[in-house]
Design a protein that fits this description.
Length: about 160
């Protein structure tokens, strides 16, 4: 019987590969979402301009940190994160948006994207638990809590 191969963290390489792949998909979705938020920030018009212009800036600044943490987690686990947009677009399920200036269309897009990311984080959490990867469990838990709050707040904002 041969010993199971482990990475430098003591995690089994075979069981951590699906976690790395899930993190890679999440990273791709985060990058597309970040870019979408920048576009929404630049193009918003109308009576909700000030509040949404600031909100989108807050969101994309936060996403920049989340993107970095996610890419670093991939490296920590022994993977190599994608770092170009052509690869992100191949992996992402979040779709690019462009030229959106209507506040309702923008908020609806952000809401739907947060719901998608929340589902992806919950799936990542399950994979990480199964592989004994407590660091990724923690990253997923933090993201779940963060996105659940954003979804709740956006629901209160525009979904009477």
């Amino acid at each position: 019987m041969t010993a199971t191969e482990k990475n430098s963290l003591g995690l089994e390489i075979a069981t951590i590969q699906p976690v790395i792949a899930s993190l890679g998909e999440l990273l791709a979705n985060y990058q597309v979402f970040y870019t979408n938020l920048r576009g929404l920030h630049w193009n918003i018009k109308g009576d909700k301009f000030y509040e949404l212009h600031e909100l989108y800036e807050e969101y994309y600044n936060e996403m920049a940190e989340i993107i970095d943490e996610t890419a670093e987690r991939i490296v920590i686990l022994g993977g190599v994160p994608a770092n170009n947009f052509s690869d992100y677009l191949k992996l992402a399920t979040v779709k690019e948006i462009t030229g959106v200036s209507d506040w309702k269309v923008g908020v609806d897009n952000v809401f739907a994207t947060l719901q998608l990311l929340l589902g992806q984080l919950r799936a990542l959490h399950s994979l990480a638990v199964k592989s004994g990867d407590h660091g990724t469990v923690s990253l997923a838990n933090h993201g779940i809590k963060n996105f659940e709050k954003k979804i709740w707040m956006l629901s209160a904002y525009c979904r009477e």
